[in-house]
Write a structure and sequence with these properties.
This protein is 77% helix and 0% strand. The protein is mainly α. The longest helix has 26 residues.
């Protein structure tokens, strides 16, 4: 029965069947596993906000300050901004690949982001990288919208 349902499903449904459990696992992992030293270091910045810090820009602290104000000083409160930025990066990268190439390229990008070493950890560790990647991918998408010459502009 599962095999027949899988065969009838569209490619989009199959990719969602892969994405949703992995993202759910990452979310649960983010909420339950203790913080590593860098995450605790970034969390300490959220207690005394500044425009930048010795070795990082201030965005990670500002976002963690917002999430810990809402969710408390918990693992999820510290990691939620990075997780949301990871999901947004995934969605933007898929959309950009779909616009530039085709549906299969978008799915390939999603699978590569889910299983690459950088994003294997970067999707649920509170660090500046997911935030940087989200804004970089958004900038690439905005650039593409400005230079494209089709009717979708």
């Amino acid at each position: 029965m599962i095999a027949k349902t899988w065969q009838r499903g569209s490619t989009f449904q199959k990719v969602l069947a892969l994405l949703i459990p992995i993202l759910l696992f990452r979310f649960l992992f983010s909420a339950t596993v203790g913080l590593i030293d860098d995450e605790a270091y970034h969390w300490s910045w959220a207690k005394e906000l500044s425009s930048s810090y010795f070795d990082h820009p201030g965005m990670v602290a500002w976002l963690e300050a917002i999430s810990t104000a809402l969710l408390g000083d918990t693992e999820l409160g510290v990691r939620l901004p990075s997780f949301l930025c990871y999901v947004a990066t995934l969605a933007l990268a898929m959309h950009l690949a779909w616009d530039l190439f085709d549906e299969w390229a978008a799915y390939f990008v999603a699978v590569m982001m889910l299983f690459s070493p950088l994003w294997g950890v970067g999707g649920y560790v509170a660090s500046p990288e997911p935030i940087f990647m989200m804004f970089w991918t958004a900038a690439a998408w905005v650039f593409w919208q400005g230079v494209r010459e089709d009717e979708k502009r």
